[in-house]
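REQUEST FORM: STRUCTURE PREDICTION
Request ID: SP-0412
Submitted by: Lab K.M.
Chain count: 1
Length (residues): 191
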Amino acid sequence: SVSEAFADILAFYSERGDVHSLANLTCLGQNRNIRNAFFTDDTAKHLTSEVLHQLFEKKRSPGNSCDKVNFSDPHITGAVLAFVLYQIFEIAVPETDSTASIDGRMSLEVSDERYRRSVRWVGSYLQQLQKIRRSSSSELKGTQLFEPMVPAIAQAISGLNLSNSQKTQICEKATKLLPIFNEEQLSPVCR
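STATUS: Completed
RESULT:
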């Protein structure tokens, strides 16, 4: 799922937010477009306990359809993670009047910065996952694999000169989109 999220978000920023390549792929296009808050069946892109339950279920559900999203598919769960990152980076690295592109796409300056922040996020996620693996006496399973998510987001946006308003918005967005995490777990992005 993390790999799929990373692929979706890097493709999006590489194209400066242009999603025309997804336009003719009805279900896939809408489901994987990181700007879309909902899947084709109107399920919100939130990382909930139900999403993780389906992802880690022993019995896999059959493939996706436009009528019912299937969270046992890591591409779909990755689409949730990509949407979360997109929402947070949208606040942390905003497009401004001075950076806005005249062609309707994201400015090169903003897309490049968000791209770099995405790379930083996955690097931090993988480093923290390794630390957890080294300190654990057993193989990591299920939700443990998502524990580094919030600290990695905090690392990805660290060093930015965020206003208090941006910090509040990021905390609110993370709280809404990542309900699997409690207040303490969200604290790295809610300081």
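NOTES: The CA atoms of residues 52 and 143 lie 7 Å apart.
Reviewed by: T.R.
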